[in-house]
Design a protein that fits this description.
Bound molecules: thiamine diphosphate, magnesium ion
Strand content: 5-15%
Number of domains: 1
Largest sheet: 5 strands, parallel
Structural class: alpha/beta
Number of helices: 11
Radius of gyration: 19 Å
CATH superfamily: Thiamin diphosphate (ThDP)-binding fold, Pyr/PP domains
Distance between the termini: 42 Å
Helix content: 40-55%
Low-confidence stretches: none
Shape: globular
CATH class: Alpha Beta
Number of strands: 7
């Protein structure tokens, strides 16, 4: 990987962190409505993954989607405006936190029903197979989603139909307040691929380089063999499940231990150790991410809400 690409990945991780911190403040100030789920702590997963895709490869995810949207190239302005329900958001302010999507950036949402987007991912891949191209679909979901029927249906279909899907489970140890070992018959989510005769791998999701390398290997396999693959990224969300989670199901010590393993800190140390960048170059990227976040908040606050005439638009596609 060249220096420019590595620094872009670092910038994106810091941008996700800053945008979401501001998002949390704006939520608490009552400026963002509905549910909001933060990605803070998990930035290395989507950053490493999406850095390894070709722009023609599709991405689809669940409701923890702000970071994924930014990694796919949707601007901070549009993400922030969508959070605030403004017309300048990429879903015209009508989707909100859980419905970040852009066909142009090949980001297919933002889905609120746990596991519900997995059969959609299989459908996207079936469409590409029918069209005769070798694009792949990267489908991200939580550990909790792997206990849902949709997961099993979609994995099975992808295998028997030779669909190019990279299934990526973000194992952040909990589905809302339920720990993986209390909800899943197997501790390692990757084991669930065995039941479908599918290849799998498990990677440290706090280390963006490891995620990137595992994703590259997986993407190459899926593209070349036209077989699906399950990649499990072991990670942790530093904040509650959604805004307003009292977090009674986990100990503060555990949260602290994972926070010491901050994916941005790990990547920063890597870049310095391998002399990819100097402290001052990284500080400049931190400042850039902060400035871009401030500008996005200004842009979103100054944008109008969708007018009444928007109410019945974008419901059906002609
Ligand atoms: C079908 C369905 N059941 C229940 C819910 C409520 N719900 C929202 S998020 C969630 C937990 C999902 O956990 P996981 O898949 O691990 O994702 P994470 O939130 O950890 O990213 C649940 C049960 C839902 N949205 N959809
Ligand atoms: Mg989870």
């Amino acid at each position: 990987m060249d220096k420019q690409k590595l620094l872009q990945m670092y910038y994106e991780m810091v941008l996700i962190r800053r945008v979401e911190e501001r998002g949390a403040e704006l939520y608490q100030a009552g400026k963002i409505g509905g549910f909001m789920h933060l990605y803070i702590g998990q930035e290395a997963v989507s950053t490493g993954l999406i850095a390894a895709r070709e722009p023609r490869d599709r991405v689809i995810t669940a409701y923890r989607d702000h970071g994924v949207a930014l990694n796919c190239g949707i601007s901070a302005n549009e993400v922030m405006a969508e959070l605030l329900g403004k017309i300048t958001g990429m879903s015209k302010g009508k989707g909100g936190s859980m419905h970040m999507a852009s066909v142009e950036k090949n980001m297919w949402g933002g889905h609120a029903i746990v596991g519900g987007h997995l059969p959609i991912a299989a459908g996207l891949a079936l469409g590409d197979q029918y069209a005769g191209n070798d694009n792949i679909t990267i489908c991200m979901f939580g550990d909790g989603a792997t206990n849902i029927g949709y997961f099993h249906e979609a994995l099975n279909l992808s295998k028997i139909w030779n669909l190019r899907v990279l299934w990526v489970c973000e194992n952040n140890q909990y589905g809302m307040g339920t720990a993986v070992e209390r909800a899943s018959a197997v501790d390692e989510i990757r084991q669930k691929a065995d039941g479908y005769g599918m290849k799998s791998d498990r990677v440290d999701g706090m280390d963006v380089i490891k995620v990137y390398e595992a994703a590259q290997k997986a993407i190459q396999y899926v593209r070349e063999t036209s077989q699906p693959y399950l990649l499990e990224a072991v990670t942790y969300r530093f904040r509650g499940h959604s805004m307003g989670d009292p977090e009674r199901y986990r100990q503060q010590d555990e949260v602290k231990k994972w926070q010491e393993n901050d994916p941005i800190g790990i990547f920063r140390a890597y870049l310095l150790k391998h002399q990819v960048a100097t402290e001052s170059e990284l500080n400049a990227l931190d400042d850039q991410a902060q400035a871009d976040t401030d500008k996005a908040v200004e842009f979103a606050e100054a944008s109008p809400e969708p007018g009444l005439e928007e109410l019945f638009k974008d419901i059906y596609v002609d």
